[in-house]
Specification:
3-stranded mixed β-sheet; 9 helices; mainly alpha; 162 residues
Length: 162
């Protein structure tokens, strides 16, 4: 608590005795200093769970809250990971669908233009835009984790490699 707030809680007699240079005044100043770090943390507690305001080192922890922990060892820049966390509920809503997978890939790679083709039942091909070709490991990891359970897939890059 800040000193004025502490003073208001005291009985009138103590308020008068807590002036500058008094023993009670000194005790209350120490009390205020001891509480200051906790008070500062409580003043910004909402930042801890906000993906765009949380400290960088906390973002992987927030990713676990929205079931993105399978990406914890992937080398995703913290900005894109923040985007994934912020969109976590929407991504979960569309998980296992073409729309959800394309959106997930676009957010994670920072590259638009992914497409999905279904050449036969229970199989699909992810077409990777040329700008995301250098992120093949990440793309495969995401597709493997986010695809419908009973499907097979192929990741096709514009250069013709899979």
């Amino acid at each position: 608590m800040r000193r004025p707030a502490i003073d208001r809680l005291l009985p009138t007699t103590y308020q008068q005795a807590a002036g500058p240079g008094t023993v009670l005044g000194g005790l209350l100043e120490v009390m205020e200093r001891l509480h200051a770090p906790d008070e500062d943390l409580l003043d910004r507690v909402e930042d801890i769970a906000a993906p765009y305001r949380a400290p960088d080192q906390l973002v992987p922890y927030l990713a676990r809250w929205v079931v993105l922990d399978h990406l914890s060892s992937a080398r995703i820049p913290v900005g894109r990971l923040r985007d994934l966390v912020a969109n976590g509920a929407d991504l979960a809503r569309w998980r296992g669908t073409r729309r959800g997978l394309v959106r997930f890939l676009e957010i994670a790679t920072g590259v638009p233009g992914f497409s999905i083709e279904e050449p036969r039942p229970f199989a699909f091909v992810v077409r990777v835009p040329e700008a995301a070709a250098d992120q093949g490991d990440l793309i495969r990891r995401i597709v493997q984790a986010e695809k419908p359970a009973a499907t097979t897939y192929e990741v096709a890059f514009s250069q013709g490699t899979t």
